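Quick entry between incubations.
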Amino acid sequence: MGDSNPETDSQQQPSQPSSDGVQPQMTMHPITYSGMPMHMYPFPPGMVPTHPTRTKRRQVKNACTNCQKACKKCDDARPCLRCVKYGIAEECVDSQRKERQKGIKRGPYKKRDGKTANVEQQQVDVAVQPQGMPVPPTVTAAVPSTTPPIPYVAPVTYPPPGLYPQYPAPPAAKPGEAAPMYYPQIFYAPIPAPPPQTTGQDGEPVGYPAHPQFYPATFIAPYPPQYATPYMMPHPHPHARPDAQIPLAPAHHYAPYPQAYPKPPSRGPGAEVGAPQMMDARRDGRMEHARMAEPIPGGAQAKSG
DNA sequence: CGGATCGGACATTCAAAGTC
DNA sequence: ACTTTGAATGTCCGATCCGC
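Done. Structure below.
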């Protein structure tokens, strides 16, 4: 099944450059990556980059226990998409992270050759638009002058509280961090080509300001395309200032979250719960092994591997 | 053929080591 | 105090298996 990235892969630059200082290619567009975020849709013909490179894999901070057992992609929402799909939403709980071992002695670390490697990395990380709008490093770093710009659609904020009462409040996210996938998100949509800038009588620009590369205009369904009809809401006020609040389309385009997904495929009488049970039963051995690998209190480290 | 399983690549976290 | 490093730990891709 098309497990896909619930969050955009283009939000982060690789946090760690390779030890040899070579930056991995980050120009891959989600359409060419199997882990295409489900809230993103294919680009129009001609806008798809040709470089078949991969983006960095993005992980949730904490997978639910079911996804963890299955070694499958989870997401920040609870219940997660996978649990909802299999009808085990009530069992979708965060897995418990093991406490990291402390007091582990390490040898002296080796200095890297190029001392400037980190400086270069930081310069990429802090790329900022002229007007102060931060741009994900992927955009700036992945757009050499010889290639067309890669349109970037990034979740930047949530709809106002109460607009989507069927959704729980999103968990607090760090600046720049993607929003949980099931909570409706507002995206900044790229503008292909701003119109010529004109100036009003008081000197205030009319039309798009100098660098309106993104403006809040698009709400993309948080559902997989097969469950929701994707639509692109045109900018209602083509000449409005980019910081103007634009009303969102009414939420009734979609069914409330739990009903938005089909029931799990039935395998016969009682099969609705049978599938996940079988799945868990067959995986118990693995999880038992994992539990056995937990540190022994006051004793030797149970290192797996 | 679709879904489950699982090895292992990849990402993240964070404490020790090193530097200023 | 801050930065760098590297290993522990977790996530999940993708090949393969398995049952219908």
